[in-house]
Amino acid sequence: MARAASIRSQPSGPRVVVVGAGAFGGWIAHDLARRHARVTLVDAWGPGNARASSGGETRVIRATYGTRATYTKMAKRAIALWQQYDERWQRGFFHKTGAMWLFEEDNAFARASVVALKAEDLPFEELAPAEGRRRFPQLSFDGVTAVLVEREAGYLLARRACEHVVQRAIAEGAEYRQASAATPLRIDGAPLQALALGDGTTIRADAFVLACGPWLGSILPDVVGTLVTPTRQEVYYFGTPAGDARFLEPQLPVWIDYGQRLIYGIPGNANRGFKVADDTAGPRFDPTNGQREPTDAGIKRARAFVARRFPALAAAPLVGAEVCQYEASPDSNYIIDRHPRASNVWIVGGGSGHGFKMGPVVGELVASLVLGESQPDSFFGLARFAGAKKSGQDKWT
User: Fold this and answer.
1) Residues near 165 by Cβ (< 8 Å), separated by ≥ 6?
2) pLDDT at 397
3) Of 114, 384, 143, 392, nearest in space to 257 by CA
């Protein structure tokens, strides 16, 4: 993406550099530019690129988060914002299909989610498995003990949205630069004056936002380090029978199978095929140089799941596959905080596989922090990791 001129008058606010043009960084740059900050957005490979955690065609958007009501509240706001921007931009990024959760044994997550959804006045249905079979005969409900359908949920067009949000940020006055930040970033206890780039140039600014996704630990090894861990995640696309609408919206919602593993899928999926992905955290992964080829074991496991839960697709051909990554924090909560040794540097990351949907909300939140209109929330703060041991990714993303 080349630099583009603004269609607005020259912004006059503080100079802000945002590193990373993904779901967090792109929306942050957009919201700062809308509020007249002089924004430079930097990304090594471009918004929605194949290495980014925000790449790929689609992402689920839903508000079911068990006991983590903070995210239910944020998701409610995110759903409203995606709908508002779709109405304004006429791009159709949000597909409201609903989201159906299938619970096998442990229903504690469902019960806690119901409490949070009710508190936010978000509509949902609780179905008996027999009712699920009647309404969705293309699924096997074997082993399912409870069904929860969230009506306002659905999926988002990820790569396309990332690209367009950056375009809108540019239209609001931001400058986009295709460049990498020099790593590691050295901060000596004083406010940062300039950011060094990989090509040897520098950008001076009043404030800096590091929304680098899986690279956040390498750019800030002393402050973030392994608090953001990239993990390898495989995604598969199976071909449905010609003309068969049973596996498309509106006949099938987004679905999440909450069993021994958390496996989810998206109907239609921008005509890429029937999407199936395992949310279980994979092995550590190098997002820059890691090979992005699916494994035979992963494909075999996905085929076995599809045959069990969607019997009509047991022999479906694999029409595509990709490898992306999560960048998980130890507790799967986001990191949104000021750098402990530089008051004008903000750290935003740890999307943990569930961050994409929240992009517009994070954009609002961080723009307010950078412009001095609010203070960091300890829920997302770095201090929560002090002395804590790293645990595995929670199965709720």
Assistant:
1) 26, 27, 30, 47, 359
2) 43
3) 143
How do the domains of the chain map onto residue ranges? 15-53+159-228+331-385, 88-155+231-324
Distance CA 317, CA 303 (A): 9
**How many other C-beta atoms are found inside a 10 Å radius of the C-beta of residue 303?**
18
CATH (residue range 88-155+231-324): 3.30.9.10
Measured CA to CA, the distance from residue 292 to residue 233 in angstroms comes to: 9
Per-residue pLDDT band for 392 (boundaries 50, 70, 90) equals: very low
Strands (E), the chain: 15-19, 38-43, 58-61, 94-95, 99-103, 124-127, 146-150, 154-157, 175-178, 194-196, 202-204, 207-210, 229-238, 254-258, 262-266, 274-278, 318-328, 335-339, 342-349
Mean pLDDT of the chain: 94
What pLDDT sits at residue 12? 80
Map tokens 């960048």 to a residue.
327
- Per residue in 41-81, pLDDT tens? 999 999 999 999 999 999 999 999 999 999 999 999 999 99
CATH of domain 15-53+159-228+331-385: 3.50.50.60
Longest dimension (CA), the chain: 64
Q: Residue 6's pLDDT is what?
A: 42
Which sign, positive or negative, has the C-alpha torsion 191, 227, 394, 26? positive
SS3 58: strand
Q: How many angstroms separate the CA atoms of 276 and 180, rounded?
A: 32
Cβ atoms within 10 A of the Cβ of 104, count?
14
Distance CA 83, CA 92 (A): 9
Cβ(182)–Cβ(309) below 8 Å: no
Q: What is the pLDDT of residue 393?
A: 45
